[in-house]
Each structure stands twice: as structure tokens, then as C-alpha cells.
Amino acid sequence: MDDPKPWLTLARASSLHAGHLRRPEGPPVPPLALLGESRAGLSALGLGDAAAEAIRNPDTAGIESDERWLAGPGRRLVTWGSHEYPALLASIDDAPLVLFVEGAVDTLSMPQLAIVGSRNPTAIGRDTATQFARHLAEVGLTITSGLALGIDAAAHRGALQARGRTVAVLGCGLDRIYPRENTELAREVASSGTLVSDLPTGVRPLKQHFPRRNRIISGLSVGTLVVEAALQSGSLITARLTAEQGREVFAIPGSIHSPLSRGCHRLIRQGAKLVESADDIFAELGALLASLEPAMRAEATDAQEDSGPALDKEYEILLDALGFEPAGVDVLVARTGFKPDAVASMLLILELDGRIAQQPGGLFCRRLPGKQE
């Protein structure tokens, strides 16, 4: 790109997207032609006052900041209509005109599955996201998520464990990482996958930015898998956008007593595909993923079903009593009839063995067998 300034000007028109290029009559407006439009012309295309002002009076200081960021290693500006712009994302109605990218640009055009969910998952929910991401990355899918705490981070880590590709879409400028706790994870993603945002430098992670981030997560992906989501979860926004974009929505069911299962159960009632194993995803995506290696797919499914070494009878009884809902020592004593000190001791052993994890409030929750984070 000879001169990124025109595109950086468009990037700072915050509400601008590809839908504004369409006219009731005639061909679409070329993106850079917007720079010469009158305020009335921009308004006729559906642009608000703030976006029109950003185009007609560019933020010079902001654009210079963007150029400094782009000068760093592994950073690119991917623009609407270029050969690097991912075709799946280009097909959605409100595709961004500009993507800020750090890492491998070609990853954006690879087959991707989004994995999203709660920021405060249970231990088994986190493990589920990690294992699904790892297995799916092993067979060639790129795992896409939003770098948030909880399920998002677990999905990215699962793909990295498999030495696969992962894409993290941020709801802020790439000159800052949000949340800060995932700064090191973001570096790992950028080194083997891709960080991407349609927001320029200096833009903070404000609440209103996350729905626009979510439409990129779903827009890049052939489908979205939701792992643990409350009824008010932002993950349900991603799922809705996925359906509106004509992509597949998958959801993992959980306990009827868990608030973190209710969002997934609602999605399933609305038509999302119920998922218990990676094969459920392959069955729905069918021909699209037919090129993935069948032997590796079988290996991934087998790994999910591996229950680990056998336990002594008392430990099996305790795990059965724990079930898949968090429970405290008193509840487990009542369910098993074991003495409190025996239950506490066995819980410690099971935690050290990676079979359970302690939750806030002194509760314990099962973990999935296999390699953990």
C-alpha cells in the first residue's frame, strides 16, 4: 500500500462499514470515493454526523499514531477489496472497511470456528473449551475468539497447545491489550496466529465496541460454538450474529440448575446444534471440512472420550456424588455418608490429580480428563 492515510481516515469514521457503500441505484460507491463526498452525500449513504465529520476533517494526530503502530514488525492494514481481505468476512452486510492486523494475515482466510462463552466459567466449562479448541485445531481448524477472560482465553490456549492457528479479535485498538491479564496470551497469539481489530490506535475497550467486535468474530468463522453462557451473556450476541450471517450455531448443554447453562439451552431451543463431541461439529459442517484428515478427526474424538486411569471405589463414589454441579464438603458428606475429614482428604487428592477444581465459596467442580491448561 503506497499511502495508508486515506484508509486510516476511513478507519476513524467509527460507524462506517461496507453497507454504507451500497446505493439504491447504480454500483456501490468505491470506499476511497467517500473522501470526496459532501456532507449531504455522506448523509445520503446513511452516515451519521460524527462519521461524516471524521471523513471531512481527518484526525491528523490519530492517523500519525496509526502509522507509527503500523511501522512495527508483523503489522498490516488489510483493506476492503484487497486480496488479503477474508472472503467470509467480506460477505456480511456490515463488514469493516479496514482491519488492523498483527501476526499472520493469511490466517484470516483459513477455515475458522469461533468458540465463545462466559468470562467466569466453571472449571469444567473452561476445560471443555480448551479441549474442544485443542482437538479442532489439531485437525486444521483455526480457532477464533475475543481474548476475553474465561472461555475465550481457554479456547485460544487450547489452539496454542495443539500448535494450531488462533485469531483473537479485540474490542479496542491493537496498541493496547484488553484485558491486561491476557497480555502474555495476546503475544502468544500474535506469534503463531493473528490479532485483529477494526478499531484504530488509541481506542479504549468501551462497552459499545464489543458487539462490533463480535460481528467480526462470527463473520470470520464458518460457525460459532458457545460454551457456558448466562442469559445476558455477550456470547449470545455473537450467536445471534452468527445465525443472521447464515452460519452454524453450536451450543454445549449443561445442568438445568446452572445459570451458565441457560444461555446454551436457550440457543438449542432456538435451533442451535447440540454438541457433545467434535464429531457433532463435523457432521454439521460436512463438506466444508471434508478435506480435514479423517484419522486426525478420529484421534481427536478418542481423546475427548478418554476417561483417564481408574479410581478406587470410594473416589468414584465421591465423584459420582459431585456430579457436574459445584458442591461443598457438607453436601458431599450428606450424599455419600463419608466422614467430613475423609471427604476433605479425598477432595484434596482429586484436586492434585486434576480431576476437580476448587471454585469460589469453598465449592468443588469436576474437571474433564486429559491435559489441562
CATH class of the largest domain: Alpha Beta
Mean pLDDT: 89
**Helix and strand element order:** HHHHEHEEHEHEHEHEHEHEHHHHHEE
Number of strands: 11
Cα end-to-end separation: 40 Å
CATH third-level topology of the largest domain: Rossmann fold
Number of helices: 16
- Derived from helix and strand composition plus strand pairing, the structural class reads alpha/beta
Q: What is the radius of gyration computed over CA atoms, rounded to a whole number of angstroms?
A: 23 Å
Task: Describe the structure in your own words.
By secondary structure, the chain is of the alpha/beta class. It has 16 helices and eleven strands. Strands 1-2-6-5-4-3-7-8-9 form a nine-stranded mixed beta sheet, sandwiched between helices. Strands 10-11 form a two-stranded antiparallel ribbon. Helix 6 runs parallel beside helix 7 and helix 9 packs across helix 10. It starts with a helix and ends in a 7-residue tail after the last strand. About 4% of the residues have low confidence.
Quick recap:
The chain folds into 3 domains: 1-66, no CATH class; 105-305, Rossmann fold (3-Layer(aba) Sandwich); 313-366, Arc Repressor Mutant, subunit A. The protein contains 16 helices and 11 strands.
Can you give keywords for this protein?
373 residues; alpha/beta; Rossmann fold; Arc Repressor Mutant, subunit A; 9-stranded mixed β-sheet; two-stranded antiparallel sheet; elongated
